[in-house]
Amino acid sequence: ASEAEEKDLVIIGGGVAGYVAAIKAGQEGMKVTCIEKRGTLGGTCLNVGCIPSKSLLNNSHLYHQILHDSKHRGIEVKEAKLNLTQMMKAKETSVSGLTKGVEFLFKKNGVEYIKGAGTFQDEHTIKVELNDGGETTVKGKNILIATGSEVTPFPGLQIDEKRVVSSTGAIALTEVPEKLLVIGGGIIGLEMASVWSRLGSKVTVVEFLDQIGGPGMDLEIAKQTQKILKKQGIVFKTGTKVLGGAQNGDIVSLEVDSAKGGKAETLDAAVVLVAIGRRPYTAGLGLENIGMELDERGRVIIDSEYRTKIPHIRCVGDVTFGPMLAHKAEEEAVAVVEYIKKGYGHVNYGCIPSVMYTFPEVAWVGQSEQDLKKAGIAYRVGTFPFSANSRAKTNLDTDGMVKMLADPETDRILGVHIIGPNAGEMIAEGTLALEYGASSEDIARTCHAHPTLAEAFKEAAMATHGKAIHF
Ligand code: FAD
Ligand code: NAD
């Protein structure tokens, strides 16, 4: 890029937030540059997050199913052997296909892509240290900060991505650890615990709170999830805090204690996964050069139009407020470009689905029962178990349920919570219902194909009036 040319939009970070904004800006006819230092586009999600983890979740589930869940279905397999190297290659194929796909979309939409690390020099100028050596500067009328997040470290435990790993190391282990200890029973902890437990590890999850699932999961669903995952062999130590850890050769040990205080014990394993959350990432961005401050959790402070206190510098994705989810980042990316281009945009923060890709999957949208209780909002509950759903029965996968929360007066849907096979796909129906302000009766009167798992969704809506047909 030449120093003289001022772009309509310069984006720092080519993760989901940054790359989606870049494509959208290109579509809107803006001159746009995206700076990314990783060497590939797609950020955490495509390179070391959503995509590689889902590849491992899918293939480890298949392996586990062949080993433990095929004989009674009439499939006898002589020998099933794990080839971890090949499983990792399959993961890498998915990742590289998608990251290259984004690069193609950049070309298609006229986005300039600079591989390097961006630092604010002044309010309109970004200095880029190029990955290939040397540096350049880029100027922007508008600048978008989309630098994402990084793992929150655990004090006293040095992450080496071999013995003490973050999710990045956990998706790239070269052998199945005999024992795996997971600190944090949130989404990353449970997805990774599932992968390695299916591949043969003895997994223990240590969670500080009394329930697993991380923030947002309905408590009733979280309890059921824990029961089901426990049946799969994962050991849970909830209400337990980690006091400290030490690495001794090939063994990592953790000292843990009841969160309320009690008798400390020592747990050891070949690998410890630190999964206690992620924190905004702004290192090296040079925010101090433009006098920009962060909030107490390190987030870039923005207004409802994604503006920082310097109005032409905006910010979206994991590095600012809200849930750290790829689809939330994507919605914001489109909205922020609309704000810049047209002056208005839209994200409905009350209607962002969450999915945990364990087996069965757990998915939800809207408010949980504990949210409603806390806010003093009246609600009616309708539940329907998959054990009463014909498709779940034919598939021999009957664990789980659909739970619907609706306003007792208006019947408007307030929240949908699903644990069950394909919950992550089914939640799209709940999200659409919530976005359109549907009532539970609207859903109950909508014809659903038979036999499908989605019939459980319809019946949960009927159950909010106590009128499910099959239960
Ligand atoms: P990021 O994806 O972190 O991208 C930011 C990019 O900016 C990075 O590539 C970084 O290299 C670059 N960058 C930073 N600073 C600079 C700089 N100064 N100059 C140049 N480049 C810079 N979410 C889901 O919705 N579904 C899932 O299934 C899911 N699974 C996940 C699994 C794991 C293991 C993890 C860790 C996360 C997962 N997430 C998932 C969360 C999801 O990855 C994030 O919400 C999403 O990536 C946020 O996008 P972002 O663009 O804001 O940030
Ligand atoms: P999280 O916030 O979901 O869960 C962290 C868990 O660790 C919580 O349950 C918390 O109580 C526990 N914890 C915190 N400190 C602890 C301590 N000292 N000892 C024991 N437990 C402790 O965070 P995460 O699982 O690390 O995930 C990070 C982010 O990535 C989340 O925002 C998540 O939404 C996102 N992500 C999403 C998906 C998905 O959408 N499927 C998958 C992976 C990650």
UniProtKB/TrEMBL annotation:
Residues annotated as binding FAD? 54, 118, 147-149, 318, 324-327
Q: Which cysteines are joined by disulfide bonds?
A: 45-50
Q: How is the cofactor bound?
A: Binds 1 FAD per subunit.
> What cofactor does this protein call for?
FAD
For this protein, the Enzyme Commission number is 1.8.1.4
- Family named by the database record: Belongs to the class-I pyridine nucleotide-disulfide oxidoreductase family.
Identify this protein by name.
Answer: Dihydrolipoyl dehydrogenase
Q: Which species? A: Podospora didyma
